[in-house]
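Colleagues,

For the teaching module next term, I've prepared a clean inverse folding example: a structure given as tokens, and then the sequence designed for it. I'd like students to try predicting residues themselves before seeing the answer, so please don't circulate the second half yet.
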């Protein structure tokens, strides 16, 4: 997502990206990974700003764990 300009180097979604996959959610911006018709459940799979932040924290914790 970073390489394609969807998120910046801080992990924030870029609201200026021209794509139908970026949408506003209750939690802010979200990025649709799979449309409803592409899933077995009939629901969209979306990654939210909170998901990105949690991934960043998990990565930092893993990195820190390997340092000691």
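(Answer key — instructors only)
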């Amino acid at each position: 997502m970073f390489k394609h300009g969807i998120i910046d180097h801080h992990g924030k979604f870029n609201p200026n990206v021209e794509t139908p996959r970026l949408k506003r959610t209750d939690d802010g911006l979200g990025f649709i990974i799979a449309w409803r018709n592409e899933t077995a459940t009939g629901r969209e799979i979306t990654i939210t700003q909170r998901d990105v932040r949690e991934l960043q924290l998990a990565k930092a914790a893993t990195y820190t764990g390997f340092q000691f």
